[in-house]
Design a protein that fits this description.
Blueprint: E1 2-3, E2 9-10, E3 13-15, H1 16-23, H2 27-35, E4 41-43, E5 46-48, H3 49-58, H4 67-70, H5 79-92, H6 96-105, H7 108-114, H8 121-127, E6 139-141, H9 148-156, E7 163-167, H10 170-184, E8 191-193, H11 196-205, E9 210-215, H12 225-235, H13 243-253, E10 255-266, H14 276-282, E11 285-292, E12 304-313, E13 319-323, E14 328-332, H15 333-337, H16 350-361, E15 371-375, H17 382-385, E16 386-387, E17 394-398, E18 403-404, E19 407-408, E20 413-416, H18 428-431, E21 436-440, E22 448-451, E23 456-457, E24 461-466, H19 473-481, H20 483-493, H21 500-503, H22 521-528, E25 530-532, E26 538-540
Parallel strand pairs: 6-7, 6-9, 7-8, 9-10, 11-13, 17-23
Antiparallel strand pairs: 1-2, 3-5, 4-5, 10-12, 11-12, 13-14, 15-24, 16-20, 17-20, 18-19, 21-22, 21-24, 25-26
Helix pairs in contact: 1-2, 5-6, 5-10, 6-10, 11-13, 12-13
Length: 542
């Protein structure tokens, strides 16, 4: 899956690394299958989703490729074998090591499908920080795995008989119950096999609520879309349909007033559009902490971050503790609510948040409904349709890497001038517009170029054509390329893709050009009443 420039999830392709993980082979093997025609590239390092699906159905398991690759058509998670293994682990191991050994025995495909990544004990302990616990409190882990949160809750002071948990894996439940018996001598019946998204409905009907709900939900677990929509309606998650959002909403529905909720979740929860509705639900509660634990899980590129919430109405002046690797500081809730899409950019400190507020406080417009947008050309197979030297029948085409803020590099790629066999082509009049702005798509920096030569672009670049902006395309390009707008983009969106939905939220200060025909960074900062500091960041003028 990938996100297009409209901020939507699409299935045009997967990365070579993702394909390798799916098929359980090396990236070198994937590249060999590309060369031999089994898989088709839809961009640099991207494989066509359609070709991968066709490969899985028509080739894998049927042709002689690689014994590990052919295993992907089988259910690699043998439940009987896993049960036997758990019995052996319980006999020879104690404590957290049982869960670690069990987790390592699960196949990558099963862990990815079910979102199985058990939380390290040091993170579990930190999530309980500053929460006063007494024995009578009722604790729940909605997806308890091998029981790390359950064990820590009891260590923190919750009575064992008041600790509850659910998990769909009966082996994990067995491990969790055994660990509680081993460490605390209590044979619990409160840890049960069950799907929490279903169980929470029953708990709500029975008015069965909890003082503490702490968990690491299954990030991105595969659930049918109709089921996601149903759960979202039940738990008030709006368009936030990821399983993290659904577990969050379900947990809030059975959390007692003044109770505490702690979630370890993926980085995307804090800034991606997909999670906007659940973030708006969260800001109605008192947020106590945001925490960044870095890349805490082996095999996962995304960071593990956390949020701790108290179930009481929020106040815009509430202070939220923001915890990073090397520093801790406070931010007001208002500084997050004011952000576009209620983005939780908690790595940004209060002084920088004031700069963001200033950028939006000054009169501006946005690109929302003021531009036409298009993707670069998707050939479906660049090796087949593109060459490195000019040749009859081919025309120059520009990649994202050819775009710089000072101009375009000389073309190093040429494309067949017959577009009829390409996978995706925008209306030609958009590429041939008298004036358009092209920009890098895969980038953490904003990099735009105003094109008046009707150039063609590949899908590592995208384009926009301004409509009724009151400033020229070249002036808009200067603003978007400015250092301060680049800084703002990184502080808000923290992404390696330049999405249309994010660009449409940036403030466009057309008033700057009412007195200035040319653009300079110094004049622009003076207009904004912002100062660049010696350490490369910004602050608002006193």
């Amino acid at each position: 899956m990938q996100t297009n420039l409209f901020g939507e999830i699409e299935t045009l392709g997967v990365t070579i690394e993702q394909a390798a993980k799916t098929v359980h082979v090396s990236t070198a093997t994937i590249r060999n299958w590309i060369k031999t025609g089994y898989l088709i590239q839809s961009g640099k390092g991207i494989i066509s989703q359609k070709s991968l699906e066709k490969f899985l159905v028509e080739v894998a398991g049927k042709e002689k490729l690689n014994s590990r690759a052919n295993k992907l058509l089988k259910d690699e998670h043998d439940h009987k074998e896993a049960s036997d293994k758990v019995s052996g682990l319980i006999k020879k191991l104690k404590g957290e090591s049982i869960g670690i050994e069990y987790e390592s025995s699960l196949s990558d495909s099963h862990r990815n499908k079910e979102g199985v990544y058990y939380t390290p004990s040091w993170i579990v302990k930190d999530l309980f920080k500053n929460i006063k616990i007494i024995p009578d409190l009722r604790f729940l882990d909605p997806c308890c795995g091998s029981g790390n949160f359950l064990i820590e809750a009891i260590r923190q002071g919750v009575a064992p008989e008041n600790v509850y948990g659910f998990d769909i894996d009966e082996n994990a439940v067995l491990i969790a119950k055994q660990r509680i018996a081993d460490e605390f001598g209590y044979e619990t019946e409160n840890i049960k096999v069950g799907d929490f998204l279903q169980e929470a409905i029953k708990l709500g009907r029975e008015n069965n609520s909890f003082d503490l709900i702490f968990t690491n939900p299954p990030w991105g677990k595969k659930i049918e879309k109709t089921s996601k929509e149903m759960y979202s309606t039940w738990y008030g998650c709006g368009n936030s349909l990821d399983t993290t959002s659904l577990f969050f909403g379900a947990s809030l529905s059975i959390l007692k007033p003044n109770g505490f909720l702690g979630f370890l979740i993926q980085e995307a929860f804090f800034n991606i559009t997909t999670f906007e509705d659940i973030r708006r639900k969260v800001v109605s509660k008192r947020i106590l902490r945001f925490v960044d634990y870095g890349k805490a899980f082996k095999g996962l590129v995304t960071k593990a971050q956390a949020i701790v919430v108290e179930n009481k109405p929020s106040n815009s002046l509430d202070l939220i503790e923001c915890c990073l690797e090397d520093k801790v500081f406070n931010r007001t809730l208002a500084s997050f609510i004011e952000n576009p899409k209620s983005i939780f950019n908690f790595r940004t400190h209060e002084t920088e948040a004031q700069v963001i507020h200033q950028l939006y406080a000054i009169q501006h417009i946005t690109l929302k409904d003021r531009a036409n947008w298009a993707l670069g050309i998707v050939t479906g197979n660049n090796d087949r349709f593109c060459i490195d030297e000019p040749q009859e029948g081919y025309i120059p085409i520009y990649k994202g890497s050819d775009i710089t803020k000072s101009g375009l590099k000389e073309p190093g790629t040429f494309i067949l001038n017959d577009f009829s066999n390409f996978q995706q082509v925008a209306p030609l009049e958009m590429y041939l517009s008298k004036e358009k702005i092209i920009y890098k798509f895969i980038s953490s920096d904003l990099c735009f170029f105003c094109d008046d030569q009707q150039r063609y672009i590949l899908n590592s670049a995208n384009l926009l054509i301004p409509v009724n902006l009151e400033i020229t395309a070249k002036q808009l390009t200067m603003l978007l390329n400015s250092e301060i707008i680049n800084w703002l983009f990184k502080k808000l969106f923290s992404t390696h893709k330049v999405l249309r939905g994010d660009l449409e939220l940036l403030p466009i200060h057309i008033g700057y050009f009412s007195s200035k025909q040319e653009f300079t960074e110094t004049d622009y900062l003076n207009y904004l009443q912002i100062i660049k500091t010696s350490d490369g960041t910004y602050c608002v003028k006193s």
